[in-house]
Specification:
Elements lengths: L4 E5 L3 H10 L5 E6 L11 E4 L5 H10 L2 E4 L6 H8 L8 H7 L2 H10 L7 E4 L2 H10 L4 E5 L9 E4 L2 H5 L10 E5 L5 E9 L5 E3 L3 E6 L2 E7 L7 H14 L4 E9 L4 E7 L9 H4 L4 H10 L14 E8 L14 E5 L9 E9 L2 H15 L4
Parallel strand pairs: 1-2, 1-4, 2-3
Antiparallel strand pairs: 5-8, 6-7, 6-8, 9-10, 9-11, 9-13, 11-12, 12-15, 13-14, 15-17, 16-17
Helix pairs in contact: 1-10, 3-4
């Protein structure tokens, strides 16, 4: 029996962790990325070429049985080219929704799922008008590309608008009203080819400068949690999705609304490698191959997990830390300001134990979260 070979468009840490989760299943991997130092190349074959290079894409397809991706900004036309040769998950139509914040929000609203209030922006004068409508409490974002806070500008008064560079108006923009949310949570959904859907426990997320720093699982219970999960599941079904879909939500005192969705495995789900019965990475592969989905419960009934992102560089004494039920993941990426270079997962049996372990780790490393 030939082992299935998974092709992954994108060679970052998500592709790397997918492969590390898939090798125990007997799967093989080929990565396709425009950069020679893509860190997934440390754990499997890496093809280096531009996403628009059809000759290279065809060679890539000849090496694999099925194709997925590790980030949502793979060009849709490249994915459609690949789809003619090999099965692709998620479907390219999903990327057309997820790659554009306007398309994403209108899709959600069309299916009865609330989002943040927004206006399309094409000029500085339109921004001035919309900002006044939103009481100068909004965020200007590029509709396409942009992640981890990139391509975003906080609007707090007319002066903040005057500081926005002229060239930002050369690309499509969207203005979103800021939400006085109580917390931000994410729902990790996996949907199989047969329509089977499973979700992991709800994740509560903390950000700094637009970058995820910490995910706590399960999130503290709220009356809005069931509705939050229902919305995420409805999105997966409406998209006829295959694989892992992560939807980030704002929860206010009495409402839930979509912030954004990621049609791929996601940073807020890294805890699942050790903290869940089946990781997001393994279940993503299972879904795409038409295999039965694994259990998405916590590693032990009543247990908890925290994922801590390491951004820019690791503390110098990182390898000297060897705590019980704590796991290091270093992505093999060169240190750089604002760059995710690794994460840690900490497991515990109750909230106080988890809190104490995080505090102890931070103290030993001499860092601030």
């Amino acid at each position: 029996m030939k082992n299935p070979t998974i092709g992954i468009l994108g060679g970052g840490q998500l592709a790397r962790m997918m492969a590390l989760s898939g090798y125990p299943l007997g799967l093989e991997f080929v990565f396709f990325d425009p950069t020679e130092d893509a860190c997934a190349g440390q754990v499997g074959e890496l093809m280096v070429a531009d996403y628009h290079n059809e000759l290279a894409l065809e060679e890539f397809c000849n090496k694999v049985d099925v194709v997925t991706l590790d980030f949502e900004n793979v060009p849709v036309d490249a994915l459609r080219f690949v789809e003619k040769k090999r099965p692709v998950f998620p479907d390219p139509n999903v990327l057309e929704v997820a790659q554009d914040r306007y398309n994403e929000k209108t899709f959600c609203l069309a299916h009865g799922i609330p989002t943040t209030e927004f206006e399309v922006i094409n000029s500085r004068s339109e921004l001035m008008f919309a900002a006044k409508k939103f009481d100068y409490d909004a965020i200007l974002k590029t509709r396409k590309m942009g992640y981890d806070g990139k391509g975003q500008y906080r609007i707090s008064d007319t002066e903040s608008i005057s500081h926005i560079p002229d060239d930002i108006f050369d690309v499509p923009l969207i203005l979103e009203r800021r939400i006085p949310f109580v917390r931000e949570v994410s729902v990790m959904v996996v949907r199989g080819r047969d329509g089977e859907v499973k979700t992991w426990p709800l994740c509560e997320n903390k950000h700094k400068n637009g970058i995820l720093t910490t995910s706590m699982v399960p999130a503290k219970e709220s009356e809005l949690d069931q509705l939050t999960v229902e919305y995420a599941t409805k999105l997966a079904d409406s998209l006829n999705y295959v694989g892992v879909l992560v939807v980030e939500f704002f929860q206010t005192e009495d409402a839930v609304m979509v912030n954004e969705m990621a049609p791929r495995v996601h940073n807020s789900g890294h805890w699942s490698i050790e903290g869940s019965q089946t990781s997001q990475f393994e279940n993503h592969l299972r879904a795409g191959l038409g295999l039965p989905l694994g259990d998405t419960g916590m590693f032990r009934a009543g247990s908890m997990a925290a994922m801590l992102n390491w951004i820019g560089a690791f503390p110098e004494n990182v390898r000297a830390i060897n705590e019980e039920q704590m796991f290091w993941h270093m992505y093999g990426k060169a240190p750089r300001e604002g760059r995710k270079i690794g994460h840690s997962t900490i497991l515990a049996d109750n909230p106080q134990e988890l809190h104490d372990r995080i505090v102890n780790l931070v103290k030993k490393l001499g860092v601030q979260l």
